[in-house]
User: Which sequence fits this backbone?
């Protein structure tokens, strides 16, 4: 297969093919209309959401997120955000599966620290094992630790999603070599989840060979979220193509682009 | 009898069903999920599911998140 053909291969998660390698969240938008427009501009096919108590007696006319982001149009990916124990994460996934009529693809995240929102790996492993045994297809948020990433793959997670930087920080890929190790060693899709701040960060992650990127704040907290969503779409595509195109080697000194022969001065 | 719905105590008659609760919350036809004492109550079973005193009920829906 040519490099060009490789670059245009779909992302396959749990047996389903996706043309877009950009997965987006639905949090922090100013309203449902902006949410909808940003998601459309991003071209994303997999969209995350959170599960919370229904607002009893409050704003009954406000549209439900799932009316704006329809399960008929998108692959919905419930998350376990704000869960600090395996038990809470498993509970959340079961409610989400009921909410989505049996759809069993979930984004597992079990947090360990409020300041960094770094994952609690011990709890993550416990929850992943339980969820997989219960038939869930688990896309798992994790640290950029290769050994843990391999363990999560071996357990049967359908995608491993190391953080680029703390959730919502916009710091970009802090440990590109760690991400690279994970990409090289795993067979399931590796998606950078969290930490991307702008389009160049997304391109860098994709140039490392990641199979995709999941982001929320980088788009939602931009001055113009819809325009940033469009930029991210292009950055993910550009980074993917650059990865397969194979970048030129870096050199310390200049190398003229124009011929030195035939000068007339 | 008393049940706890989304963390709030609520007085309901004996034999009060999940379907009646969904009605009273004006959530009929909405995409929701329910658990009682941390066990899922499937949508298809709402009409037949009668709460017991002290049940802890959670009714959830999808919200924006990453």
Assistant:
């Amino acid at each position: 297969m040519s490099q060009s053909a490789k670059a245009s291969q779909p992302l396959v998660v749990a047996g389903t093919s996706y043309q877009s390698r950009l997965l987006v969240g639905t949090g922090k938008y100013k309203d449902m209309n902006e949410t909808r427009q940003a998601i459309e501009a991003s071209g994303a096919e997999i969209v995350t959401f959170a599960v919370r108590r229904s607002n009893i007696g409050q704003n009954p006319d406000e549209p439900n997120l799932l009316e704006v982001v329809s399960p008929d149009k998108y692959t919905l990916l419930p998350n376990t955000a704000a869960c600090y124990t395996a038990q809470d994460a498993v509970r959340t996934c079961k409610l989400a599966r009921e909410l989505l009529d049996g759809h069993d693809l979930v984004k597992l995240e079990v947090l360990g620290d409020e300041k960094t929102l770094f994952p609690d790996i011990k709890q993550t492993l416990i929850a992943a094992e339980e969820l997989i045994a219960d038939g869930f297809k688990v896309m798992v948020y994790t640290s950029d630790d290769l050994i843990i990433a391999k363990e999560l793959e071996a357990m049967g997670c359908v995608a491993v999603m190391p953080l680029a930087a703390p959730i919502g920080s916009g710091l970009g890929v802090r440990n590109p070599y760690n991400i690279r190790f994970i990409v090289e060693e795993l067979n399931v899709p590796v998606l950078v989840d969290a930490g991307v701040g702008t389009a160049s960060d997304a391109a860098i992650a994709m140039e490392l060979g990641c199979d995709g990127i999941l982001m929320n704040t980088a788009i939602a907290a931009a001055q113009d979220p819809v325009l940033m969503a469009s930029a991210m779409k292009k950055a993910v595509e550009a980074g993917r193509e650059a990865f397969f195109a194979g970048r030129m080697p870096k050199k310390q000194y200049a190398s003229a682009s124009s011929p030195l022969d035939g000068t007339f001065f | 009898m008393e049940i706890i719905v989304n963390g709030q105590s609520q007085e309901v008659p004996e034999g009060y069903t999940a379907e009646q609760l969904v009605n009273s919350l004006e959530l009929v036809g909405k995409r929701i999920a329910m658990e009682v004492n941390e066990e899922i109550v499937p949508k298809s079973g709402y009409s037949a599911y009668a709460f017991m005193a002290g049940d802890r009920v959670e009714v959830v829906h999808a919200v924006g998140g990453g």
Observations:
- Chain A touches chain B through 35 residues (CB under 8 Å).
- The first strand of chain A starts at residue 11 and ends at 13.
- The beta strands of chain A are 11-13, 16-18, 22-24, 46-53, 75-78, 105-108, 137-142, 159-162, 191-193, 212-215.
- Chain A is about 40% helix and 15% strand.
